[in-house]
């Protein structure tokens, strides 16, 4: 049994190569080490040149230690042979199945001012992948995973340099990237979807105008339809701005590109703001207990929905945030050229788009949970009579929250060009958003609009939540 296990054990141990060094704290130069998947780590002379990988440890690491001599361990591991460092649902591939581990002394070293540099040697990388400097984080997930915090990547012709501010196990992860053909397919889907969404936005607005004219006496219904009309108007403008941006951004003058980028940003913020106002309206209708009188309610909502994005875009335009934004592959092939927030001002994008929408979706989720609980309680007390009416009320909540908010949550899962399936899902669902809303409104309000309106009015009268006025 032991003899039969020896070849397997020997094969696994062949995937582990170790270099032990005793380094004095009085060292005057950076410590240089070369490594390769086959030969493992060894000391590197300053004048030596080769195609293997390289590790450069700054001398400040050793000078900060208390002992005169410290032991440094450098390991090169073949994770395929060893069966280690396997992340759950990992999409990227480890370069040459090689992981490099560095330890100095017996303490954890992090927060280095002068980072350790690891050069992973490679030829021309396969088409359709993006390299990423990562380290193994045991605290990520259930069994650990790859993390890129504290590491900066510099892509070269013969290798990739990773500069990291701590010591641990490092590797170069090759993630699937968005290639030109995939990007063109996404642009075609988005363009066609925008056209369809604009058409159904017009249908939805027309349908809402028809209902408002037919049921003028139903003030609550008119308020609800007014909100939906403004939301669909913002979606129409967003799709129109995207079509103009994708069609006119190439070869435009810098001033025109800034205006087009600001317009696109404004339409996106208007869409987010009206989603938030829909959530606020649901809160006032279903949650707020005290009676409230709001004069010119819909007018004030319009001032917020269309005015607040104007303020944000104005400030962003004054500081020069808008301009040409290029999306490229890792081999510097141009995927798309858009008029948007420039790479220099990505912080503006993270704050005004990601942060703003994150707060909105959290609020809508909270309102969704409270309104659902409120509807169930009202049904139990007999305030809403009949299963069909309760289903209608539930459809109001689910339609406003899921159809208008859930699809945009996918944007957080498309943080880079490696999330190709999520990019397709996000593009398709948001392109069909206008169709979803139109079908939802038709099912909800036609042909039994009076019945639906009556059930909602009954809930409002029962709870005495809000009184609105459009006078």
Which helices and strands, and how do they pair?
Elements: H1 2-13, E1 16-24, E2 31-36, E3 40-43, E4 53-57, H2 60-63, E5 69-78, H3 79-82, E6 93-94, E7 98-104, E8 116-121, E9 129-137, E10 145-147, E11 151-155, E12 159-164, E13 169-176, H4 180-214, H5 219-248, H6 254-286, E14 293-294, H7 297-318, E15 322-328, E16 334-341, H8 346-380, H9 387-409, H10 420-431, H11 433-445, H12 449-463, E17 467-468
Parallel strand pairs: 14-17
Antiparallel strand pairs: 1-5, 2-3, 2-4, 4-8, 5-7, 6-13, 7-13, 8-12, 9-10, 9-13, 11-12, 15-16
Descriptive tags:
7-stranded antiparallel β-sheet; 471 residues; disordered N terminus; 17 strands; 6-stranded antiparallel β-sheet; alpha+beta
- The SSE string, one letter per element, is HEEEEHEHEEEEEEEEHHHEHEEHHHHHE
Q: How many DSSP helices?
A: 12
- Helix % is 40-55%
The span between the termini is 91 Å
**Would you report the number of β strands?**
17
